[in-house]
Amino acid sequence: MIVSIPASTGNTTFAKKQMSAKTPKESRTVVTDLVLPSETNPIGNMFGGELLARMDRAASIAARRHSRRIVVTVSVNHVAFNKMIPLGSVVTVEANVSRAFKSSMEIFMDVWIEDRESGMRSKANEAIYTFVAVDEMGNTVPVPELIPETKLEKERFVAALRRKQLSLVLAGKMQPNEATELKALFS
Ligand SMILES: CC(=O)SCCNC(=O)CCNC(=O)[C@H](O)C(C)(C)COP(=O)(O)OP(=O)(O)OC[C@H]1O[C@@H](n2cnc3c(N)ncnc32)[C@H](O)[C@@H]1OP(=O)(O)O
Question: Which residue's CA is minimally distant from atom 21 of ligand 1?
């Protein structure tokens, strides 16, 4: 997904404010919607592609709120379809920026479904996408730092560098011997 917002007002105070470090809760994005018949497979469960699209939209909003720039999906790093999501389910995608690098942001998504009678939520899926902030010409631009606050945010922040290196190695954009954080796991 590509999301566009006005990139600059030409006002330096505005630009500085855009670049100050932010916490995950400042860009947290929660999207709740039903599963309709047109979004299901022949056995009445939600299509994986529909969920991927919903997650892409939620993640792009979180990345845009964090960076206040145009953001594009550069990589879908991890998706786990752990649980079927039946027709009529109420599905909530919660997207949090887990780490910001120079121009890229890792977005961690937790997907929940809600029991109709009890209202209890259970975790159905999770996914990790990477977005990059760009200008109107498509050139990468810097993003604000992320300051994790909770224990979970701190864990995801630390692991994000390993995931970035793994993603870059798999994409052929980094040599395995340069992936120092990844190698440290095995030493
Ligand atoms: C048709 C479709 O693609 S539909 C999906 C919509 N998305 C798009 O259209 C995006 C298409 N891609 C692009 O325009 C370009 O690849 C860009 C602008 C995203 C990146 O351009 P690049 O020349 O690769 O820039 P560069 O190599 O500097 O990478 C930019 C950042 O992305 C990171 N990155 C690049 N590829 C990956 C990857 N596979 N996994 C994780 N991070 C990645 C880089 O590490 C870098 O991060 P940093 O600046 O935070 O250190």
Answer: 140
